[in-house]
Structure formats: C-alpha cells, structure tokens
C-alpha cells in the first residue's frame, strides 16, 4: 500500500507550505484562511498516519493508537473545514463590499 505514505507525505508538506505562507502574508483574514487549510492538511496527515500504522502492524495496540490518531485527525480536519468555510465567507463579504 504505497498510497497511504504518499498521502501522508503530501499532506505533511502541504501543512508546512501553508504555515510558511502565513508568515509571508500581511492580511490577517488571509492568514486565518491559510491556517485553516494547514489544519485540514494536518488532520489528513494524522489520520492517514494512524491508518497506515495499523495496516503495517495489525496488533491490538496499533488499533488503539490508530483510533486515537483518527480521533485527533478528524478533530483537526473538521475544525479546519469549519474555519475555512467561515473565513472564506468573510473574505468574500469583504471583497464584495470594497
């Protein structure tokens, strides 16, 4: 299963990409949008890392660790999606009012 490590690596690099882009941006609203995207990428990375570890080891301990990783990954991902939708709407409101 080479797909899971590729997804993990791509999402890990996307997380760092968005975190670095936050530093380059001066607009606080765009910083929040990029931070939300970084949280989504982190959630995907954590979730797929947990799944990959379970598929690799397939033990009861790995299952419990996978459940914990999935829990935190889904929390990060859903929180990021909620923030992204909210701040994207705020950005569109600001763009139409100017």
UniProtKB/TrEMBL annotation:
InterPro entries, per the entry: YtpI (IPR025618)
Pfam families xrefs: YtpI (PF14007)
Annotated transmembrane regions: 6-24, 36-55, 61-81
Domain of life, per lineage: Bacteria
Protein name, per record: YtpI family protein
Keywords: Membrane, Transmembrane, Transmembrane helix
The keyword Transmembrane appears for this protein: yes
